[in-house]
Amino acid sequence: MTKKLSLGPVPKAETIKLTITISVQLRADLDRYAALHSELHGTVVDALTLAPLMLETFIARDKGFRAARPSLGGSLNNRPGSLDETR
C-alpha cells in the first residue's frame, strides 16, 4: 500500500466556486485518490475538496509557469497557491 501521497492534509482557505467538466475516468481517479488520502490522513475528504489543492500543487511545481510569473502582471502570493482575482 502507498504510504505517502503528493498532497498532505487539506488546509483551510478562502474559496470561490468554479464549474468544470471532467471525464468519467478522471472523476473515478479523483474519487479513488480521495479515498486513499482519507485513509492515509485519518480525515474523510472528498474529491471536490482535493481537486483545488491538486491544481494548486501542480501550478506551484510547474517550472515553466514559475519562470513566466513575473510577466503575468500579478502575484500568486496574495494567498498561498491561488491566482489574483477580482472578487
TrEMBL record:
Residues 68-87 are annotated as: Disordered. It comes from the Bacteria. Pfam families: DUF2274. InterPro entries: DUF2274. This is DUF2274 domain-containing protein. It comes from Chelatococcus asaccharovorans.
